[in-house]
């Protein structure tokens, strides 16, 4: 994955926060577990991860804490093997 992908997800999250008139989140600030982002925001982020970056979230052992901070989200994206074909 490229740094562009990470920047795009970061931009999405910061846009969601701005739309809800919430302050920006730091690298390691909890997004979901703190309630800063709700289940609707989580769904939006998860859809973007799956559709744009090929992240497979169908694993029944997936834990949202793996994407609870901007830092952990970026790590997950960068760990992907490459852009999805298509």
TrEMBL record:
PROSITE patterns: CARRIER (PS50075). It comes from the Bacteria. Residues 1-81 form the Carrier domain. This is Phosphopantetheine attachment site. It comes from Aquamicrobium aerolatum DSM 21857. The lineage of its organism: Bacteria, Pseudomonadati, Pseudomonadota, Alphaproteobacteria, Hyphomicrobiales.
